[in-house]
């Protein structure tokens, strides 16, 4: 895709930053300033002539404290400034350049303290030497030394790996990830898939790796359908980055793709153009639609809950569950003597029944105003066209046709060919099913990671809907059930606050300046907010509970194909889109255990 998702990462053709040249870890770069107040939380550094620090550098200084001994004060550079010392007017710069006015060029840097070890909160003394952090000091400064289970996020600007504590992802001490950024530039989907890859292959899952699952909803194009194909554009430089991160440079090994049937196709062939192997069609029969009370997900827009017919939806769904009877083996139903073989037939039946006063009382159990009924029916009729391809009475009821996460480590639900109304229906029904499955299992293990883009569409700040209820359940109770949400959105300010606030890890890519000024980005210091408005694709700012400042991360070029033209052939794949074992000849889940 060229406007968002994985391909936007590729369009920039970026690589993770390499090690900076001309600087050595542990070298002295300056001294703590005495002209600026130093505190246990921040201080300023005057740089020695010829020395350079940049934003995000990790620096350390030490102070001998009576009774405690040496105290390490470590932090991250958040501001770097250069000025003429001795100039009084702006025009003096020309006189200084011509040698007519004496002045010195001075560079200073502000450091935000991230860790004091031992915890003796005293300010560094003016004049104390400041050093670029060596590997051990860097690990201390960024708390990597206390992360028993850490996963690579990408490379820092110093060319060294950066990590996130898995305890804040798997529910041990927190869960969920919120990713924000401008569409087409922020590489939200690319980062989400890299995060999944890192989780599966970093070794933190140990023996649980084979059974841990990911469910990805793909809403823009077919680029996410090739996660199990090596990227032909991956070069040696990118492979080296994966090696430095401790990850294999390869595609996902176990992927199952689900796509809706082609409209009007009597055989239920998946509606995809670029991939024909390892793809299964998903749909719901009319029998399942009635038995599982899926009618409420037809009215999954927040505006539906504000309308007066929300109670009527529940009443009609309950009657359908009680009165619908299966007809034959094709998923059709009979309701009050009338057979329905398409979703349109069922809608027409409801229309005829609810417009007749006596029948309407039987359906609703009470006197219902005709205006409310008509509003309900108008909304229901408008759903016939978008939902007819996926709510079927003409396809075999016994065929595997529902989205399931048991077939592969990564399950991708392709929604891009469905109208927005149908996308909401699919997301709501699938999430409800997976959440109930995890709830009934009685254990949080194995974990299920759910990647959902455009979160502001499914869980908007205002209003209520069945999908929003489920996502709130995931955000608030998913941690204990092993359901981890990785949500992405252009504007976090438009997403339900409780979902964002329950995310232990927050990520921002390129931000719109107006959006960056919103209070939802208070976790970003002012300087980082400004940087986020000019961030390049592939650069993300990641905040996690243990580290006081967000980390600027450059994650590597995808090792998996992000568009059909990049996909390397998989000679072992022998599947077809219409039949047989969808993963015959493909590596199974058991084969995808990382080589620890």
From TrEMBL:
Q: Which domain of life is it from?
A: Bacteria
Listed SUPFAM superfamilies: P-loop containing nucleoside triphosphate hydrolases
Keyword annotations from UniProtKB, A to Z: ATP-binding, Nucleotide-binding
GO molecular function terms listed in the Swiss-Prot or TrEMBL record = ATP binding
List every stretch annotated Disordered: 1-26, 565-596
Fetch the InterPro entries from UniProt: P-loop_NTPase, T4SS_component
Would I find Metal-binding among this entry's keywords? no
The UniProt regions of compositional bias labelled Low complexity, in chain numbering, are 1-20, 565-578
Q: What is this protein called?
A: ATP-binding protein
Per the UniProt record, the source organism is Nonomuraea terrae
